[in-house]
């Protein structure tokens, strides 16, 4: 019992030491940054104390409006782009004819620098949130499409042949074979698409916007206000880190739920196959 607890205690001590070192390095960097700013001026480097004061000032003002604007653009574009990207990837991945016809067209559109489309969307849809949502949607669509398409085309044909021999329908083939095989590709695509969605929304706001974190960046840069610029960058870093952690927790819970559902389906499937074999044997005996 003590031998089991000893490695766990050692691992916890190692983790605590790493956290302590990370905090110490962070404090040392901030202290060095503060010293450089006080010695050489704040024109280009600013100071962590000034940045903290600016963040407090924004928090008491309208920072939440800019944050909610960018968050809405990212979530809306991520949801719409993921839905259409997954649907198109599954459809083309399981249909060779559609793949041959449409995939070169999608690849041709993907070759266009997507950020270069931002001015076009702004001219079409104005300065509100809609052009940024469209830009995020297109970025996410391509990432989810190619990932889902790769997953759909890599499905094991032997598994599909086996379920076809068992008399499965197209819905059952998709539910039991295609969807589970593509799930890892889809989850990976969403993890990749999230930071790109934030980049697309911020870039669109930097080009032309009235609200948003990208607007804070462009406004600070136009006034050569380095303190506000670093404060906006700090907010983006925090938003990216928190969204990544929340997404990891969400996917972890989904994997637990999916695992429990697969175990339940396996039990039901085994009983169904046993019932099917028993019924077939009974029919054979009746025929003899």
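Sequence proposed for the structure above (288 residues):
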């Amino acid at each position: 019992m003590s031998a089991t607890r000893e490695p766990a205690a050692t691992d916890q001590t190692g983790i605590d030491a790493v956290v302590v070192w990370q905090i110490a390095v962070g404090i040392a960097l901030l202290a060095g940054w503060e010293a450089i700013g006080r010695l050489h001026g704040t024109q280009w480097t600013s100071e962590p104390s000034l940045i903290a004061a600016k963040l407090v000032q924004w928090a008491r003002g309208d920072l939440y409006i800019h944050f909610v604007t960018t968050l809405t653009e990212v979530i809306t574009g991520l949801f719409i782009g993921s839905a259409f990207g997954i649907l198109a990837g599954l459809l083309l991945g399981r249909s060779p004819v559609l793949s041959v016809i449409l995939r070169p067209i999608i690849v041709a559109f993907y070759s266009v620098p997507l950020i270069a489309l931002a001015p076009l969307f702004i001219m079409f849809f104005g300065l509100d949130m809609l052009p940024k949502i469209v830009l995020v949607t297109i970025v996410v669509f391509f990432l989810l499409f190619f990932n889902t398409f790769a997953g759909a085309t890599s499905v094991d044909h032997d598994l599909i042949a086996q379920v076809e021999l068992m008399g499965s329908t197209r819905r059952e083939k998709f539910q039991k074979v295609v969807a589970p095989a593509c799930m890892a590709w889809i989850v990976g695509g969403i993890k990749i698409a999230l930071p790109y969605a934030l980049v697309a929304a911020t870039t669109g706001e930097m080009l032309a916007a009235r609200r948003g974190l990208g607007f804070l960046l462009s406004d600070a840069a136009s006034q050569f206000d380095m303190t506000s610029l670093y404060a906006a960058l700090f907010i983006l870093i925090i938003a990216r880190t928190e969204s990544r952690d929340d997404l990891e927790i969400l996917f972890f819970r989904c994997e637990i739920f999916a695992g429990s559902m697969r175990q339940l389906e396996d039990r039901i499937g085994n009983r169904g196959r046993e019932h099917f074999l028993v019924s077939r044997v009974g029919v054979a005996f009746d025929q003899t």
